[in-house]
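As a warm-up, study this chain.
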Amino acid sequence: MVQSVLFSFTVLFGILLLAGVLGASYAGTMLALKRFFGDEYSERPRTTSD
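Now compare it with the structure written out below.
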């Protein structure tokens, strides 16, 4: 009984960790694309004030 509960918690934690890593990787890739290719991917036009 204890082993099955521990196993399910481990699986749940693993899935959450994997989702977090994938999300961070996706966000990092989008940020890098924006930085390298300028602001063409963003909605607001580039202003000279920043």
